[in-house]
């Protein structure tokens, strides 16, 4: 079982690297599409990729699978829509930082919903990771302590992300990864296109320069990333998964430096160190 745990943690680290690269590629996609179009396209591509691959096995999906997958898809869509709509009122750096608050939310949600033990190591590790994310996020815009409607929406989205992570842990124990992914991605795609329609976005740009980053986000960041997360969480706890996945901000910073030639500043170095310190505290459990 220890080997499975090790592979589960490694899978989550790879997921964080994939998601981190998605930040940079998403910024390229947003030069061609609206935020809602990017969300709808990424989920649609992930859904279609899985649908083609698993078409002969669709009859294996039960009514119970549908309910669980649709619930996960709704949580995921609500999280992304809150996070995206909040950008109309707050800065991208603050949005990224407040979204990362889900790392701290997870152990407390588990305690209040399931009365699980509040691990001191998980809380300390989550707080270290959160401070680290803050330092890597606020490298350009500076720190503002005042909160507006966009910040509250971002926090609501963080709550949905935390709920999605916890429910993924629960559903993943009794349901095949491909079933979870197919149903939740189909649900998320449907709801996202509804938002595109209600928001009145313009026609889609179908040129290759516009589609290339969206294809990467849809097939690699979304399909591969979320599949790997769902499978890896079978062998880890929700608290540990949340903290390991918080390293995506660090990997996003590294990717931006490599692809966009963004400068390295001292906050990034310290922030990255704190994030990994949070992972180590949670994993090695020094505060027993």
From TrEMBL:
<dbReference type="Pfam" id="PF00892">
    <property type="entry name" value="EamA"/>
</dbReference>
<protein>
    <submittedName>
        <fullName>Putative membrane protein</fullName>
    </submittedName>
</protein>
<feature type="transmembrane region" description="Helical">
    <location>
        <begin position="180"/>
        <end position="198"/>
    </location>
</feature>
<feature type="domain" description="EamA">
    <location>
        <begin position="7"/>
        <end position="137"/>
    </location>
</feature>
<feature type="transmembrane region" description="Helical">
    <location>
        <begin position="145"/>
        <end position="168"/>
    </location>
</feature>
<keyword id="KW-0812">Transmembrane</keyword>
<feature type="transmembrane region" description="Helical">
    <location>
        <begin position="121"/>
        <end position="139"/>
    </location>
</feature>
<feature type="transmembrane region" description="Helical">
    <location>
        <begin position="69"/>
        <end position="90"/>
    </location>
</feature>
<dbReference type="InterPro" id="IPR037185">
    <property type="entry name" value="EmrE-like"/>
</dbReference>
<keyword id="KW-0472">Membrane</keyword>
<dbReference type="GO" id="GO:0005886">
    <property type="term" value="C:plasma membrane"/>
</dbReference>
<keyword id="KW-1003">Cell membrane</keyword>
<feature type="transmembrane region" description="Helical">
    <location>
        <begin position="265"/>
        <end position="284"/>
    </location>
</feature>
<dbReference type="InterPro" id="IPR000620">
    <property type="entry name" value="EamA_dom"/>
</dbReference>
<feature type="domain" description="EamA">
    <location>
        <begin position="149"/>
        <end position="281"/>
    </location>
</feature>
<comment type="similarity">
    <text>Belongs to the EamA transporter family.</text>
</comment>
<feature type="transmembrane region" description="Helical">
    <location>
        <begin position="210"/>
        <end position="229"/>
    </location>
</feature>
<feature type="transmembrane region" description="Helical">
    <location>
        <begin position="241"/>
        <end position="259"/>
    </location>
</feature>
<feature type="transmembrane region" description="Helical">
    <location>
        <begin position="39"/>
        <end position="57"/>
    </location>
</feature>
<dbReference type="InterPro" id="IPR051258">
    <property type="entry name" value="Diverse_Substrate_Transporter"/>
</dbReference>
<keyword id="KW-1133">Transmembrane helix</keyword>
<feature type="transmembrane region" description="Helical">
    <location>
        <begin position="12"/>
        <end position="33"/>
    </location>
</feature>
<feature type="transmembrane region" description="Helical">
    <location>
        <begin position="96"/>
        <end position="114"/>
    </location>
</feature>
